């Protein structure tokens, strides 16, 4: 997908991989004896401001209300679903790629619509009915 200023495209994944830092971690949860010995989970850290992304995409990413983006403008993604470190790295990179592609996609403009004639008629009929009900209440209170 080609976003604004060449944000997408075939080279995006390689640029993201070059700008990202991977930190191996021990995965949480059940796993037997192996879980305490092997660091198979991975934490991906991607500094938006220091990346090679276009300025428009950086601004859209920094403006997102996403809990994965911290106050310093660093995206932190933790992947631990797979049992091998390379597969968890690929999973984290794919999630980062999806996030950047989503930010790079142009926003679709809202198309203004008009209410139908029948909808206008229903609204006016309901207004008249409501007005009559209120008028009847006023007459009954006097």
Topology of this protein?
Layout: H1 12-19, E1 21-25, E2 41-47, H2 55-63, E3 74-79, H3 85-104, H4 117-141
Antiparallel strand pairs: 1-2, 2-3
Helix pairs in contact: 1-3, 2-3
Briefly, what is this?
By secondary structure, the chain is α+β, with helices and mostly antiparallel strands.
Label this structure with key terms:
about 140 residues; alpha+beta; three-stranded antiparallel β-sheet; about 15% strand; disordered N terminus
What features would you describe in this structure?
With 142 residues, the chain is an alpha+beta fold. Helix 1 packs across helix 3 (85-104). It has a three-stranded antiparallel beta sheet with strand order 1-2-3. The longest helix has 25 residues, at 117-141. Helices cover 44% and strands 13% of the residues.
């Amino acid at each position: 997908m080609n976003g604004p200023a060449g944000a997408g495209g075939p080279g995006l994944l390689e640029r993201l991989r070059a700008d990202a830092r991977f930190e191996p971690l021990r995965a949480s949860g059940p796993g037997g004896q192996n879980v305490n010995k092997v660091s198979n989970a991975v934490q991906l850290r991607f500094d938006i401001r220091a990346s090679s992304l276009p300025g428009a995409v950086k601004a859209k990413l920094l403006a997102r209300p996403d809990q994965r983006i911290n106050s310093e403008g660093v995206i932190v993604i933790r992947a631990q679903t797979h049992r091998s470190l390379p597969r968890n790295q690929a999973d984290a990179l794919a999630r980062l790629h999806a996030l950047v592609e989503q930010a790079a996609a142009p926003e679709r403009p809202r198309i203004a619509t008009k209410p139908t004639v029948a909808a206008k008629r229903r609204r006016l009929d309901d207004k008249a009915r409501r007005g009559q009900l209120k008028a009847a209440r006023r007459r009954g209170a006097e």
